[in-house]
Amino acid sequence: EEQLVQSGAEVKKPGESLKISCKGSGYSFTSYWIGWVRQMSGKGLEWVGIIFPGDSDTRYSPSFQGQVTISADKSITTAYLQWSSLKASDTAMYYCVRKDSSGYIDYWGQGTLVTVSS
Amino acid sequence: EIVLTQSPDTLSLSPGERATLSCRASQRVSSSYFGWYQQKPGQAPRLLIYAASSRATGIPDRFSGSGSGTDFTLTISRLEPEDFAVYYCQQYGSSSWTFGQGTKVELK
User: Fold this and answer.
1) Are B14 and B26 in contact (CB under 8 A)?
2) Could you read off the pLDDT of A27-46 as tens digits, one per residue?
3) A interface with B, Cβ–Cβ below 8 Å
4) How far is A74 from chain B (nearest CA, A)?
5) Widest CA span of chain A, in angstroms?
6) How far is CA A43 from CA A38, A91, B43, B73, B77, in A?
7) How many CB pairs under 8 A join A and B?
8) What DSSP designation does B10 have?
9) E strand or H helix at B87
10) What is the pLDDT of residues A11-29, one digit of tens each?
11) B56 near A CB under 8 A
């Protein structure tokens, strides 16, 4: 069974760094793009970026370029989303997703809630 | 960047009624790379429709998608109680994705 399992909720202070994870299982991890989607409380879905674990090719939404870093470790079938200096405005639920070969999102992780507050 | 605008923002309907949700793109989108998702409170979204009109696995046939170019539609033929949720359209071009802002289908 294909699944994406994300790391647990995080509470951080502004200026701190953070790396959240997404472990893929039940499929060939290096054959599918993994993306990240942000959802702020009560708001819609925003694409953050996407990575192909097979060769680490990474693309970012213009809105998130330079604000976050996406990476993957194919040896442990895990993708990451990280911040070097969090802001209160980073507070949101972050979903990792798998992009099907046809382009749509076929699997979603359970989400990681990131709260940034002083 | 392609902007997707959904209408209406909220649709108030009763069970058994027909729901028609629209999504308009700021520029032409390939039908092959257009989809719809449903999100219920406290849950991750799930895929309903891909390639503009193909139902995902396990999606009931009361859900249908249509459209091309810049105008796409999701239709729920007869609303069931479990269909009250937020619906998002998405385009998934080769190197970028965008989502619409969502349409909430609420109980009237």
Assistant:
1) no
2) 999 999 999 999 999 999 99
3) 35, 37, 44-47, 50, 59, 61-62, 95, 99-100, 102-106, 108-111
4) 21
5) 42
6) 9, 12, 14, 21, 26
7) 58
8) E
9) strand B86-92
10) 999 999 999 999 999 999 9
11) yes
